[in-house]
Specification:
Oligomer: single chain
CATH class of the largest domain: Alpha Beta
Number of domains: 2
CATH architecture of the largest domain: Alpha-Beta Complex
Mean pLDDT: 93
Strand content: 35-45%
CATH topology of the largest domain: Nucleoside Triphosphate Pyrophosphohydrolase
Strand order of the largest sheet: 7-4-9-8
Number of strands: 10
Radius of gyration: 19 Å
């Protein structure tokens, strides 16, 4: 039996901010019942796996206000309006770790929270890292400390719970054979 999609009856924008928008849709389900669906709309983001060598990866230690913790994670960032994914990956790599990748390779495209958010995360391996052409500008709300780790050490950090960021756990898992 083919799946029947809910029919949107009306939509209301609850919040429209710099990073995301929140919408409230009233929908009619296949059963005929009505339901309210809360949706977070996001332009999408890139997650970077900067590799100075094949057995190393650069993580950033970053304060995350929402959880009130400093955590180690892969560098990442949101797409600007109209920005190409590869351009965003190069820009974010330079901004977050101070190095520009000569080569980038798309690894995966994943939805981190499809139950309520339409954000797509695109993972990129960044290699042949070199100094930037000019001064890299960080976002005003970012406090970052980049550090190069052996991939084996990052995997040990994940196993012992020292890395709690899901995109980092998934991204490191994409590095097959390292």
């Amino acid at each position: 039996m083919p799946a029947v999609r809910p029919k949107r009856l009306r939509r209301r924008v609850i919040y429209d901010g710099r990073i995301f928008r929140v919408e409230l849709d009233q929908v009619r389900l296949a059963t005929g019942r009505e339901a309210a669906m809360e949706i977070v709309r996001h332009r999408g983001s890139v997650v970077l796996l900067p590799q100075p060598t094949p057995d190393q990866v650069v993580l950033v230690r970053q304060y995350r206000y929402v959880i009130d913790e400093w955590i180690w994670e892969l560098p990442a960032g949101s797409l600007e309006r109209g920005e190409r994914l590869d351009a965003c990956a190069r820009r974010e790599c330079e901004e977050e770790i101070g190095l520009r990748p000569s080569r980038i390779r798309r690894l995966a495209t994943l939805y981190p929270t499809p139950g309520f958010c339409d954000e797509v995360m695109v993972f990129f391996a960044c290699t042949s890292l070199r100094p930037p052409r000019g001064e890299a500008a960080r976002d005003a709300d970012e406090q970052l400390e980049p550090r190069t780790f052996a991939i084996a050490e990052v995997r040990r950090m994940i196993r012992r719970g020292a890395i709690v960021d899901m995109k980092t756990v998934v991204g490191v898992g994409l590095l097959v054979g390292s």
